[in-house]
Design brief:
Length: 181
């Protein structure tokens, strides 16, 4: 298998990108990375990541992230009918595990103005809260809504050469639930 040597300082940046990429839904080409004289080899090709809910858990919280493309059409805040199963899954988790307030965070990509993206992220978080109340009977659950707009991206919105990165932008459009245990 061919190997490519990368200087150690570059390797740290590439590892950070690979670790960040591993947590989100998009195909990423993977290659060989070398640290000094000891190479770390990854298979060459495309690695696919799940496109559904991503859940992480700590001692006090559960975090569930849903890609906005599952929930909404591009540049919209209306819940898609195809999002029902993903939202039902989140509702079940809320019923079983939430023992405190639940924060719903909305995010957008970097297209559009800062103020527009802020409002869109808030509208999306509110739409999810409203849907859960109306369709899953969770209207009495203590929800906190936070919109982040394009802040706190999980992937670059632009490629290193400055061109648009549609896959990165797609990963940045998301809704995250922070569930207090």
């Amino acid at each position: 298998m061919p190997q490519r040597r990368i200087f150690p300082t570059a390797s740290i940046s590439i590892c950070a990108v690979l670790v960040a990429a591993a947590a989100h839904a998009a195909p990423y080409p993977v290659d060989t990375i070398s640290f000094g004289s000891d190479p770390v080899t990854f298979p060459t090709g495309t690695v696919s990541f799940p496109s559904g809910p991503v859940q992480t858990e700590t001692a006090t919280t559960i975090e569930v992230t849903l890609p906005a493309d599952i929930l909404f059409d591009f540049d919209k805040a209306d819940i898609r009918s195809s999002a029902q199963s993903a939202l039902h899954e989140v509702a079940q988790l809320l019923r079983e595990r939430a023992h405190g307030p639940v924060t719903i965070q909305g995010y957008t990509d970097a297209l559009g103005s800062e103020s527009y993206n802020q409002r869109l992220s808030e509208r999306r978080a509110i739409a999810v809260k409203t849907w859960l109340g109306s369709n899953e009977g969770l209207a009495n659950m203590r929800f906190t809504i936070v919109g982040f707009g394009a802040r706190n991206p999980v992937a670059p919105n632009r490629k290193p050469d400055g061109s648009d990165d549609p896959e990165g932008r797609q990963r940045n459009r998301r809704v995250t639930f922070i569930i207090s245990k």
